[in-house]
Design the sequence.
């Protein structure tokens, strides 16, 4: 994610997204000024919770 301003994820489930983003999201400022497009599949409630 550090190499690009845009990252697109298309995974089968949110747990896979958390596995990928977990280490990155824990770094201060790692996601600042970045656009993340998440095309992963899950319920609307899970999508809202993740966005928050």
Sequence:
């Amino acid at each position: 994610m550090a190499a690009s301003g845009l990252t697109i994820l298309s995974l089968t489930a949110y747990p896979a997204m958390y596995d990928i983003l977990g280490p990155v999201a824990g770094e201060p400022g790692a996601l600042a000024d970045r656009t993340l497009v998440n095309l992963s599949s899950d319920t609307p409630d899970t999508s809202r919770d993740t966005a928050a």
In short: DSSP finds two helices and two strands in the chain.
